[in-house]
Amino acid sequence: MSSIVVDPAVSGEELRRQLYAGNLVILTRLQALREFVDYTREELTELFSPHDPEHVHEHIDPPEMAKILSKWKPHFIHAERSRKLVREIVAEAGFPPDETHYDLPKPRTSFPSGHLTTGVAFAFPWHRDTWYSAPAQQINWWLPIFPVRADNAMTFDLASFDRAVPNTSGAFDYYENNARRLTTQTGVTREAQARPGAVDHKAFQDLVILPAPGEVLLFSGNQLHASTPNTSGLSRYSVDFRTVSVPDLMAGRGAPLADVYCTGTAIRDFVSVADESRFDEQAIVDVFGAPPADAMLVFE
Question: What is the rounded average pLDDT for all residues in the chain?
């Protein structure tokens, strides 16, 4: 049975084992987390000045918001300070930098119902990241930038962690989707990307976790979760990134995959926490097989 654990006094290996088993973990004591939140708040305050970031949707219409975010988000994702702080968070949490790969931090925006909810502000339905070709070893790190509430966060269905759920992941290919992402910013009223999701899913019990700014929620990429419809009247900002343990990947240790039918792999998006080097291509081929000759392996 899955559980919620706060600041567990365990090794990194045991922490990963708990996450692969379906547990949720909240870390509250990382100094690098607090620095990352302060940095991101400064970025958002400057981006939307003179408007309050949590109320900016009252002043900027969806098409203009899509333009603003489509320029700022790539800047934030690739900024040296963003990457440096994420690497510090991972290391401070006890994950060995030379054995851990991470992907770049993604800022997420959730606007109140009736505003921008597609493209760069997509509201995700019930899904697993593994339906998006994430590896079974992926661990998600999710941190709010301003306080979140039950009506503007995300929800989990822990009971379905290792149970098959009808879904559309069979139509998703990671390499093809990399090409489609080139038009994400144009999605103001409809989606340009393929978005695998559960089919007519009803959770037995919705579980909403509300870490405070300066705290981070860790969960397996195989957790079934969804964006909560934002009825709070406030714009929500969060950042997430992912990590993969190299020894676990090579040994085949990870979460159980009961209903993953997508093709391709996102593993090439991950770089070393120690020096930002990529996985050896032959090692990827040995684990996941050779990709098509014309595949867009990494979205850049």
Answer: 92
- Which pLDDT band holds residue 145 (cuts at 50, 70, 90)? very high
Please state, for a pLDDT cut of 90, what percent of the chain lies above it: 82
Contacts of 172 (CB under 8 A, 6+ apart): 131, 132, 133, 194, 196, 262, 263
- What is residue 103's DSSP assignment? -
Gyration radius of the chain over CA positions: 18
Predicted TM-score (pTM) of the model is 0.92
CA angle 91, 80, 77 (to 5 degrees): 90
Query: 240: part of which helix (H) or strand (E)?
Result: strand 236-245
Strand partners for 237? 109
- Let me know: does 178 contact 269? Beta carbons within 8 Å: no
State the Cα–Cα distance between residues 25 and 42, nearest whole angstrom: 27
Q: Which residues 6+ apart lie within 8 Å of 287 measured at CB?
A: 249, 250, 267
Q: How many CA atoms lie within 13 A of 201 on its CB side?
A: 24
Place of tokens 């379905």: 160
CA of 17: how far to CAs of 153, 219, 245, 251, 266, in Å? 26, 11, 11, 13, 21
Question: Could you tell me whether strands 236-245 and 100-102 are parallel, antiparallel, or unpaired per DSSP bridges?
Answer: antiparallel
| pLDDT mean over 148-172 | 95
Backbone angles phi, psi at 285, to 5 degrees: -65, -40
Residue type, position 29, single letter: R
pLDDT per residue over 106-124, tens digit each? 999 998 876 555 444 456 7
